[in-house]
Amino acid sequence: MVASLTPKAKVLLLEQSTKLMFDDRAATTAVAAVKEILKWCENEDIVPGKWVVKGKKYRFNRQGIDKIQQAYLQIMGEDIFEDFSSDTHQTAAFKSADEKQGKIKPTEHLVLAALTNNRVLEGFQEQLYSCEQVNVELDIKRINYSSYDTLILIENRDSFNDWHKFQGMVENHLGNVLAIYRGDSHYSKAANLLIKNWGTSCHDKALVYFGDFDLSGLMLALAGNCTHLLLPKNTWLQQQLVTQHYPDEQLKYFYGVEQKCPSGWLSLFNLMSSTTAGLRQQRMYDTPLKLHSR
Q: CA 165 from chain center: how many Å?
């Protein structure tokens, strides 16, 4: 079975093909990708160019790249220069044997939301088992923002899974809440888009950040234009802070947070910076939480 070329190798061929239209002496030093292409060409008896500097700099020629493109289409059933930027895995499957070249990932439009509504829980219990919260994937294109009074962005997955334990402390102040997970590699893109959409269409409604008490948490809340932080009271935080929860790698955010920190959060920022300590969300289970407005 003939192996397919990696995306990096295909990108290199497209780059070199474009450059050769204007300069026949164009060459590349992307040695790893060149070697991959040459290994593939060996199986098809194609010599696509030559080494300008052995093992360091390679020059393709237009005829060689054309032969690669033709052979690849015949063998792999794929145009080597196909653009997959607008494809999902499903649509990419009609263009290539490797459907994962589709750039639009299956979760790109989905956020993970925590549902604690009694009717939802009763239906879930009827079909499966009793629980206090159901996490579901929601399509951000279909969410009716007008149905909600508050959007809550929860930083850590374990705390998100336990949102039902926290919500009672603040639900009377927030109305109908849409609580979502900030996201990892699977959910962060859609979460960021939802936050942007919320800011545009619900600019007069609350956007709450519930996460770690550290520079990164403040930076993320500022970047999302959050209206509130959900944290314990300052006096409790002061007694519980942990120096290890204020890592050196977050100091790069200090200046930006200092410059943009709103007046309502200054006492929190000053507490954090003066003690060089923070507190992770997982330590906030056994204390009342408070909404800190900007």
A: 26
Contact 163, 136 (CB under 8 A): no
Helix 31-43 / helix 62-76 crossing angle, nearest 10 deg = 60
- Residues 6+ positions from 209 with CB-CB distance below 8 Å: 152, 153, 155, 217, 220, 221, 224, 226, 228, 229, 230
Predicted TM-score (pTM) of this structure? 0.76
Where in the sequence is the domain holding 156, given as residue range(s)? 110-293
Number of domains forming the structure of the chain: 2
pLDDT in tens, 253-265: 999 999 999 999 9
Q: Reply yes or no on whether the pLDDT at 2 is more than 70.
A: no
Measured distance between the N- and C-terminal CA atoms of the chain, rounded to whole angstroms: 61
Q: What CA–CA distance (Å, rounded) separates 61 from 68?
A: 11
Residue entry with tokens 């060689």: 64
pLDDT tens digits, residue range 119-154?
999 999 999 999 999 999 999 999 999 999 999 999
Using DSSP bridges, classify how beta strands 110-115 and 177-181 pair: parallel, antiparallel or unpaired: antiparallel
Q: Do residues 77 and 7 lie in contact, with contact meaning Cβ atoms separated by under 8 Å? A: no
Boundary (domain end) residue, out of 56, 71, 101: 101
Task: Round to whole Å and give the CA distance between 285 and 240.
Answer: 12
Strands 228-231 and 290-293, by their bridges, are antiparallel
Residue 242 is classified by DSSP as B
- CATH number for the domain including 221? 3.40.1360
